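Quick one, tokens below:
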């Protein structure tokens, strides 16, 4: 990756991380129901899941970029379109509230797995990575450098 682009990527990822989504909602909910310290187990799983998503997307995008720049650009457009569709759906759907029933205490292992699975199946994470990473990847650098 171009070192100058890294200074743009880091604040972009930080801003995206602050937007509410499935993982942040889970962290907030578990923080309220399980407590701060127990929620940290879920956060370790989230970090591992996000690392899985990012590395998979980088490898996938590098492979597609090696095939054709046209496919690479098309995938970036599809990823961006998906994000716009999700934003529209979130903006137009009505709010739903549930009753605050007491939740059972989950084990550390269950919280770790819950965090990992939530991060890996989160479509927002995949969509953001597929839409954003092409702008930060360069053919001048190897896959590992990107």
């Amino acid at each position: 990756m171009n070192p100058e682009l890294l200074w743009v990527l880091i604040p972009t990822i930080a801003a995206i991380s602050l937007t509410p989504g499935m993982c942040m909602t889970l962290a907030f909910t578990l923080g309220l129901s399980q407590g701060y310290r127990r929620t940290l187990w879920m956060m370790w799983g989230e970090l591992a899941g996000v690392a899985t998503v990012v590395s998979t997307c980088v490898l996938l995008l590098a492979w597609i970029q090696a095939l054709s720049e046209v496919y690479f650009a098309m995938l970036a457009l599809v990823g961006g379109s998906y994000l716009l569709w999700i934003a529209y759906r979130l903006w137009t759907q009505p709010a739903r509230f549930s009753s605050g029933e007491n939740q059972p205490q989950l084990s550390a292992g269950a919280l770790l797995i819950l965090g990992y699975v939530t991060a890996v199946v989160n479509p927002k994470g995949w969509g953001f990575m597929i839409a954003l990473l092409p702008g930060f990847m360069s053919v001048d650098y190897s896959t590992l450098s990107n």
